[in-house]
Amino acid sequence: MKTGQGAWLLQDKRRQQEQGFTLIEVTIVLVISGILAAIALPSFLNQASKAKQVEAKMYLGTLNRAQQSYMLERAQFADTVTQLGIAFPNSLNYNYSIRLGSVGNQYAVHDAKSLSVSLRPYVGVVAIAQSNTGDARIETVLCESKAAQQGKAEQPVIDATSVDCASSTKPVGQ
Question: Any transmembrane segments, and where (predicted)?
Answer without folding.
Answer: 21-45
